[in-house]
């Protein structure tokens, strides 16, 4: 049944992180169970209420395995493969399922122990490629090789400097210093970034995201149930997603990024402008990812993001507070960061972010990417 009126609106009513950092006393499934129970308690619900399940990027642990472990037999499930962007895209997928009566309570979950299991390898992505002969013979390590190419192109076209890229990492670390759960909290300088080991030119070690364990859970409900949440529910005002290419040579230009279409759709659906956004949570798989996100979403013109970050606009006193948890660069990057971006945005909009709280934040934008800069998903979240 298609819902109408205020009750048709969809809200995030519960969020929780799974154990983070280095997890040796849990499996991925038990990490999910911990996060799911905490998020559902946050929403004033239990596992018995869940009838929609959204899981991705877990290898063999998909919706069936997770449902079995949690004791859930969902009436609606989704495991769309959009990589790290999936969990932002799931906000749109779950909203559609809730609004059409396919489910009443949707649970999005994820967990990874990539650090503890030492499963992350620089070249494993190429094994999945449909035409690896165009990249692999030349030694391109995925995914950082692809981000290195994007950074080099951005420098070539717009004059972006290594110092501007490094400013992203320094900003993320400043935010992480305010987050007691962040993996890296010690002081970081531009020189520290520029002197770190070269990974994929021009990206250096501190331009690249962490490799950690972690995960989380998100609960979504419709307006009638969201009123019973233990905490302030956050409305999903707009969503968008796009997929462009797998191989980086198939991206026609930086302007053709899948993030452009995803962001445009989300902003149009939410009927908000860039000036309305109080907090921005981009997927910082690397420092160049943040510059591209700022330009794709439209906060900056093409080529302007480097100077924008260098001027301090992403800091807590800046014009666009961003990466407020410390992000994938300093807080946590468990293989797929999107779910943690949503959790951080919700906490900011609820006013629950502690020392890193952005004053008066009521509208947030989350922008996820996946694959080899192949997919993107954007969500606009609103308090009240």
TrEMBL record:
CDD domains per record: SCP-x_thiolase
Coiled-coil ranges per UniProt: none
TM segment ranges: none
Source taxon at top rank: Bacteria
GO MF annotations in UniProt: acyltransferase activity, transferring groups other than amino-acyl groups
Residues in Thiolase C-terminal domain copies: 240-382
Listed name of the protein: Acetyl-CoA acetyltransferase
Keyword annotations of the record: Transferase
Signal peptide: none
InterPro entries with a match to the protein in the record: Thiolase (IPR002155), Thiolase-like (IPR016039), Thiolase_C_2 (IPR055140)
